Amino acid sequence: MTAGLFDLPRLRAREDAGLAERLARSLAETTAGWQLSTAQVTDWLAERALAHRFVVERIPFARLDQWDFVEDGARLAHHSGKFFTVEGLRVTADQGPVLSWDQPIIRQPEVGILGLLLKEFDGVPHLLMQAKMEPGNPNLLQLSPTVQATRSNYTKVHRGSEVRYLEYFVDPTRGRVLADVLQSEQGSWFHQKINRNMIVEVDEDVPIGDDFRWLTLGQIGELLRRDNVVNMDARTVLACAPIGSDEAGALHSDTELLSWFTAERARREMRVELMPLTEVNDWRRGPWSIDHDAGRYFSIVAVSVAAGNREVTRWTQPLLEPHGLAVTAFLTRRIGGVPHVLVHAKAEAGLRDTIELAPTVQYTPENYAHLSGADRPPFLDLVLTAGPESVRYRAIHSEEGGRFLNAEGRYLVVDVNEADAPLDPPPGFRWVTPGQLRFLARHPHYVNVQARSLLACLNTGAVGW
Amino acid sequence: MTAGLFDLPRLRAREDAGLAERLARSLAETTAGWQLSTAQVTDWLAERALAHRFVVERIPFARLDQWDFVEDGARLAHHSGKFFTVEGLRVTADQGPVLSWDQPIIRQPEVGILGLLLKEFDGVPHLLMQAKMEPGNPNLLQLSPTVQATRSNYTKVHRGSEVRYLEYFVDPTRGRVLADVLQSEQGSWFHQKINRNMIVEVDEDVPIGDDFRWLTLGQIGELLRRDNVVNMDARTVLACAPIGSDEAGALHSDTELLSWFTAERARREMRVELMPLTEVNDWRRGPWSIDHDAGRYFSIVAVSVAAGNREVTRWTQPLLEPHGLAVTAFLTRRIGGVPHVLVHAKAEAGLRDTIELAPTVQYTPENYAHLSGADRPPFLDLVLTAGPESVRYRAIHSEEGGRFLNAEGRYLVVDVNEADAPLDPPPGFRWVTPGQLRFLARHPHYVNVQARSLLACLNTGAVGW
Q1: CA B277 → CA B71, B80, B86, distances in Å?
Q2: What whole-number distance in Å separates Cα of residue B434 and Cα of residue B392?
Q3: In chain B, what residues touch A255 (CB-CB under 8 Å)?
Q4: Predicted local distance difference test score (pLDDT) of residue A155
Q5: What is the CB-side half-sphere exposure of residue A73 using CA atoms within 13 A?
Q6: pLDDT band at A311, cuts 50/70/90?
Q7: CB distance B241 to B217 below 8 Å
Q8: In which band, very low, low, confident or very high, does the pLDDT at B265 lie, cut at 50, 70 and 90?
Q9: In this structure, what are the phi and psi dihedrals at residue B216, rounded to the nearest 5 degrees?
């Protein structure tokens, strides 16, 4: 084997040096994109909402079509065996205020695709966003990624229309992949669910349907300051965008951060076992819902949906309906002039590796109202009582409207000082820079979906420093 | 929040810029270290072997002490509930020559520590290696990392002596962490086992026991050219060493590589279910062993061990004994002047994420002797027939001697050309640089233990380019 000069052109740089600068141009463009001004987006979304009939109605389980409690009630499943099932989970933890519990959980072993198409117009990268109806969203229609497809979607279990633009993500050699990573979703509600988060750049002309618009990163950042406009699937993909960092350093080096994370994972043990719904303690199934005995956490319910622009025009399905408004917040400080956020190495029963990095606060206060003192979640009360002068970002966002009903949460970024949250925080917490979160979000199993929602707000300029 | 100049010193660089250069000095030192010349290591190992009585004897299961087939034979377990169990596994794959099978498997949910202590002598980093006896090694004594401890070890289930130097890894603030990552082990023999791979640098004086010696990376590289000297635990930690790369580029960018890997993971489905040993089809349990009906793959056996320098002086335990000599090989080519190796995205039933990057060839030929044509493993015959002029590296190494009995394999790096292995290889294969493998080995679930063994040979200069 000798190296021939003739094959030198085959080599590529391992990193695309110009990419961060190009994305910075997209980030800087906050008021107008190639197609729409940011002000016009509201009208366009209202117009799309009018263009689509979409009625969501609660129904009893008995009226579910193609869905049944099978195996003597062990699982709620679709006749095709596809989509997802609702099953029981038994959890035994080694630490925390609650050491063991049962719960229903959504099991969806298929890997779906959440894909954003990117294209330059006048030298500025734009992302192709979709106005998409989802039955669980409180306002039904939100901005989603270009493609949001379960494997059942695109292998036609619905026998509905094809998923538009899917070909760019199934065969990414049609463009250039800028990000492609498997990421977890809600570890308290999903059993080991992962989705493929992709950003693909194209040069060719892309025909645009009525439900699609090209927007800049800066425009999306403006929209992320509003309640319930940018959906969870868009947020998680935006978190994986290869934004550059000009941070002068960090409180901890990357190796120290990885080592702390490894230690957190190694010291936690959580035993998790799927089991029949009928054996789940402390929950009961009624004709309309499966509920916790004390009314906490969430219910499993059923809805019927009639829509015009979905893969099929009418269907029924189960949804998970959380109780209460979640509070999801990063505490933030400048350290040596560089913004840092306080991450929490949080154990969640449905995560494949048990631990991922969560926001400082990720709780639904109602679920913890019965706890006091040391059992109160750390920093929760600090966020709940934060004055407006220290709230750097606040908006209400919904979780995935295809699985969750009215799953809204307050997302915040709150300024704190040494007295509130010291540089040497309690065990399980660590100060990291946004650049470090991006470094981790390039790989699976590090940054949980709630932290990725807030990272999307950092990546798009929705949170100013 | 305003940035005060007073707190600027708190910031650190995210990467340690001088580290790669320091490790390069250690790599360059191949003939002599601070304590021993490389030639003297053989004598020292022979002396340590003489110093320790160590007798390993096969016994029937009935003579196992503290180990029993419990729950009507469902699992082979230790009375303490610690260490590991042998259970049954049922696997259903969506592709490959065999679509479903049962097998026994070792289940060890605890996370252990494999730790290397590093210290500079005369400006050259040295690693503290241990001469360690393990019952499954064909030659019993090999070089292991400084610390090799299961959680059961260091929480004293053995009630034996303490693990030396463990304090540096349990509380790494005593030194500086250079690497710390959870890595999988053999996915065909272990169910979801992970260990913590750590390298910690210290400045303080470290008292050295008779079984320990400081060696340079270059010395370890020389020893890796010999058969059965450097054990698996040392190899996997060495694979995680933060060696620098001066590669001019790569055939695929890092993002392209990650995207290909993500696609490989997303397209594969493997259903894996633990079950009682008594329900495992095609395997039978005798008084001395559990064997496959056709005599393939491996057996579960039992041994008694008497030793002088282990945590306890006498014990019995089960071991997994593979049948046949494994062949583990990277094909390699220079592309644009830069060495590349051909990785295989290989599904293994015991891996948490199903797929990790394996060497080009990772098979025990005997297990595939009954297959022919397209069902023969790709590239296996190419490696088996490679002439000496194309074999860049060849040595026999053992897998973990605490769990596996005589688990030897031929590790090779073989030069090939476009006709043997094209730049556009078959599905599931990809050309990557050693630097890219190191980039991935910094994170869990990317590079499997066999590929890490070969990466250790690349990292230490055992394979010259």
Answers
A1: 10, 20, 8
A2: 15
A3: 15-16, 177-180, 242
A4: 62
A5: 11
A6: low
A7: yes
A8: very high
A9: -80, 165
Return the structure tokens found at A109: 């072993």
Report yes or no: A210 and A51 within 8 Å, Cβ to Cβ.
yes
- Of the candidates B113, B182, B333, the beta carbon closest to that of A265 is on B182
Task: Tell the residue number behind the tokens 């620098």, with chain if given.
Answer: B244
Coil, strand or helix: which one is B442?
Answer: coil
Distances (CA, A) of A144 to A230, B56, B185: 6, 63, 39
ipTM given for this complex: 0.94
Q: What are the DSSP E strand ranges found in A336-407?
A: 338-347, 355-358, 361-363, 391-398
- d(CA B261, CA B137) in angstroms, rounded, equals 34
Cβ–Cβ < 8 Å for B192, B351: yes
Which tens digits make up the pLDDT trace of B409-464?
999 999 999 999 999 999 999 999 999 999 999 999 999 999 999 999 999 999 98
Q: Is the pLDDT of residue B327 over 90?
A: yes
H or E element in which residue A24 lies: helix A19-28
Higher per-residue pLDDT: B7 or A16: A16
Q: Which residues of B touch A251 (CB under 8 A)?
A: 10-12
Q: Is B242 on the interface with A (CB under 8 A)?
A: yes
Residue B51 CA neighbour count, 13 Å, CB half: 14
Does the pLDDT value for residue B36 go beyond 80? yes
CB contact residues (below 8 A), chain A span 122-151, against chain B: none
The two three-digit tokens of residue A463, written as one number:
């949170």
Tell which residue, B201, B84, B204, B212, has the closest CA to residue B147.
Answer: B212
Check: CB of residue B328 under 8 Å from CB of residue B412. yes
Does A3 have pLDDT greater than 90?
no
The tokens describing B446, both together, are 């990317």
- Angstrom distance (rounded) from CA B352 to CA B365: 26
Q: Encoding tokens for residue A374?
A: 């040391």
The phi, psi pair for B176, rounded to 5°, reads -120, 130
- The encoded tokens of residue B346 equal 């290989």
Contact B397, B408 (CB under 8 A): yes
Contact A180 B415 (CB under 8 A): no
pLDDT in tens, A343-379: 999 999 999 999 999 999 999 988 888 887 877 889 9
- Residue range A296-325: average pLDDT? 87
Confidence of residue A340 (pLDDT cuts 50, 70, 90): very high
In this predicted model, what pLDDT tens digit does every residue of B367-396 receive, in sequence order? 888 888 877 889 999 999 999 999 999 999
Between CA B161 and CA B312 the distance in angstroms is 7
Quote the CA–CA distance of B348 and B346 in Å, as a whole number.
6
Query: Is A443 an interface residue toward B (CB < 8 Å)?
Result: yes
